Amino acid sequence: MSIICTYVRAKPAIMESLCADPDSIPERCFAGKDVTMIDIDRATDGLAWLASPRKRAEAAYHDRLMRDADWPDHEARRSLAAIDRMPVEDALAAIERWKEGGVIIPDIGLAAVLYPAERVPALSTALAGLTEESLRLHLDFATMDRDDVLPGNWMEEGEDLFLFYLLPYLSRLKHFYRSAADAGESVLLIWS
Description:
CATH architecture: 3-Layer(aba) Sandwich
Protein name: DUF1877 family protein
Order of helices and strands: EHHEHHHHEEHHHHE
CATH topology: Hypothetical protein yfbM fold
Distance between the termini: 11 Å
InterPro entries: DUF1877, YfbM-like_sf
Mean pLDDT: 92
Largest sheet: 5 strands, antiparallel
Organism: Sphingobium nicotianae
Number of strands: 5
CATH superfamily: YfbM-like super family
Strand content: 5-15%
CATH class: Alpha Beta
């Protein structure tokens, strides 16, 4: 099982009504008149890992925690504290994370975060800064497999996954945020 992040954009008043009545979200999204919804399958994890030092540090921490039964507790706590001091970059927030300026909506899916319209342009700009070249700097298929970065199979299919899976979904996500910013819309991330 993997968690999928769905992205919803709409004008602030419409988004407020969606958050007040979460059961209406699928119907409103599929009607497509005033609400736009996308998901990027399991590319969320790979994009976040490549885009964010914090995400890579979290993945390494979880990998060691799961694989190293002898890791002393004080070292694990120190490692986690160091991660907690790392900033949540806007690109990471746009892809999968709560950040200051976002509002957690606990009654939607497993969880959700709402970014108000005034916060969306900064998130869009951060995503626009992610390029094939900037992400490629962090490609490390062995480490990505070790850290269980989705969609997986990096050692066998890494270059194809990067070029034909992650990059097209990144393009789709950039377009989504750019359109939301241009239209003065709020963005809701829903985990399910």
